[in-house]
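Tutorial, part two.
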Amino acid sequence: MKKLLLYIALGLAGVATTTVVIIAATGGFGVNGNDGGNNDIATKYKIYFMVEAVEYADIETAGNELIALPTSPTKPDYVFDGWFFDNGERLTGTYYLNTALTENVVVNARLWRRILRLQRIDEHYAPICRCKPNSNRK
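Running the prediction step on this input gives:
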């Protein structure tokens, strides 16, 4: 629905003059150039943060802004590597800085399993920490 502005002016000295001005808005007044309805406020969508298929947190945003990511999840013997989309792209706080959200989004935590190994150095053993991707194998 287009926005219309109607202006009516009455003249002075008892002479009634009527001026009608109709201005039709054809875009640029709403969000992202959308002039339909009352779109002065951007639609917000949710970003769901999942850890091992369980919702860890969610935030609401319309995009086009910095995003405050939730605190990093912790799990014994695992190292948190970040939040990732299904296609492997990493979500950062600036990912949606210049992009509007158009739907709800799901990102997953990438956890790497910490493996502790011992390395022989002279007569002593020293721990070596290496990490590998989280897998369902035990």
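Residues 1-35 have pLDDT under 50 and may be disordered. In part three we will examine how such features are distributed along the chain.
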